[in-house]
Design a protein that fits this description.
The protein is elongated and about 70 Å long. Helices cover 51% and strands 11% of the residues. The chain has two domains: 85 residues, Orthogonal Bundle (434 Repressor (Amino-terminal Domain)); 179 residues, Endonuclease, Chain A, CATH 3.30.870. The longest helix has 21 residues. 31% of the residues are buried. Strands 3-2-1-4-5-6 form a six-stranded mixed beta sheet, with helices on both faces. The chain is α/β, with parallel strands linked by helices and 292 residues long. It has 13 helices and six strands.
C-alpha cells in the first residue's frame, strides 16, 4: 500500500494513525481491549496495523474507534475530513481542539488557497501575528484562558503561517486600519515586535494602511477575508466572523465584499507610504518601554 501513496498522502495517513493512537491512549485502553470494544471485524493485530499506517484507514475505522474512545463528534469529523482531503486539513487534525468548529472550513482552505484579500480594522491578521501578540491579544480578550490554552493558540498561529513558506506561497493583500497599529496589545515591546514583523512582511506581501486622516469609509471596522483559488476561481468566497459564528459568502454577497475591498483600498495609503507609516509608528508611538 505504501508504494501507491504520494508523499503528501503518506504523511497524512501517518498523522491520522498517530491521532488514533493518541485517542486510545487518552481513553486508557490497550489495543486488545480497544479491539474487543470495537466489536466484529477488529482485532489487536488489525488495530496495531491501523495505528502504524500499515493498512488502509477508512472513515468507518475512524468513526468506530472514535466512538469507542469517547471522542467528541466534531473531532471525529475533522479526522475523517483529513483522510478524505489530505491537502489542507492537517492543521485541523493537529489543532482540532483549538480551531472553533464554525471556522474549520476557512482554516483548511487557508492552507490550500492561492490568494487572500484581507481587511482588518481591529487586530493584526493571524498570518502576520508574532507569538507575543498572539498570547497578549488572546489573554486580554479572555482572562480565563490558561497558559496551556495560550500555548495552543500560539502553536496554531505559527502552523497557519507555514502557508507563507510553502513551495507556492500564499499571496497576501492586507489592508489595515491605522487604529490596529495604535491599539496597545501587550505593551510597547510587543507592539514594536509586531510592527517590525509587518515592516518585514511588507516587502513580501501587499500591505496597505487606511490612515486616521481618511475619516469614515465603507465597512469600517468590519473585518473580512476573500479567499481565492487559482485552479478553481468559481470557489472564491468571502469569510466573516461574528463572535461565536461565521458566514461564508458566495455569489452576490462575495461580489459585495470584493467591491468593498476595492473601495477601502481607495482610502488606503500606497504600499510604500504604508511602510513609511509603520516605521513612524514604530519609532514615535511605540518607542517607550512602558505600557502607556
Amino acid at each position: 500500500m505504501a508504494d501507491e501513496l504520494t508523499p503528501l498522502q503518506r504523511q497524512s495517513l501517518e498523522g491520522i494513525a498517530a491521532v488514533l493512537r493518541k485517542w486510545r491512549d487518552e481513553a486508557g485502553l490497550n489495543q486488545k481491549v480497544a479491539a474487543d470494544k470495537a466489536g466484529h471485524g477488529y482485532s489487536q493485530s488489525m488495530l496495531s496495523r491501523l495505528e502504524h499506517a500499515d493498512r488502509e484507514i477508512t472513515p468507518r475505522h475512524i468513526r468506530d474507534l472514535g466512538q469507542v474512545y469517547g471522542v467528541d463528534e466534531h473531532e471525529i469529523d475533522v479526522l475523517v475530513r483529513q483522510l478524505e482531503r489530505p491537502d489542507g486539513d492537517s492543521i485541523l487534525v493537529t489543532h482540532g481542539d483549538t480551531v472553533p468548529g464554525f471556522a474549520s472550513d476557512y482554516f483548511a482552505d487557508e492552507q490550500r488557497a492561492s490568494e487572500l484579500d484581507v481587511y482588518h480594522g481591529k487586530y493584526v491578521f493571524g498570518l502576520h501575528q508574532v507569538a507575543s501578540y498572539v498570547r497578549s491579544s488572546r489573554a486580554e480578550v479572555d482572562p480565563d484562558l490558561t497558559e496551556a490554552d495560550l500555548d495552543r493558540s500560539e502553536a496554531l498561529r505559527l502552523d497557519r503561517q507555514k502557508s507563507l513558506s510553502r513551495d507556492k506561497p500564499l499571496r497576501l493583500n492586507v489592508i489595515y486600519d491605522e487604529d490596529v497599529l495604535r491599539r496597545n496589545i501587550g505593551g510597547a515591546a510587543v507592539m514594536r515586535e509586531q510592527i517590525d514583523r509587518l515592516i518585514e512582511e511588507s516587502h513580501r506581501h501587499r500591505i496597505e494602511i487606511v490612515p486616521l486622516s481618511a475619516g469614515a469609509y465603507p465597512s469600517m471596522g468590519q473585518d473580512f477575508t476573500i479567499v481565492r483559488f487559482d485552479a478553481l476561481p468559481g470557489k472564491t468566497y468571502a469569510y466573516t466572523e461574528h463572535g461565536q459564528s461565521a458566514t461564508y459568502h458566495i455569489r452576490a454577497r462575495r461580489a459585495f465584499y470584493e467591491k468593498r475591498f476595492l473601495q477601502i483600498r481607495q482610502r488606503a495609503l500606497s504600499p510604500e507610504k504604508s511602510r513609511d507609516l509603520l516605521v513612524t509608528l514604530r519609532t514615535d508611538l511605540w518607542s517607550s518601554n512602558e505600557r502607556g
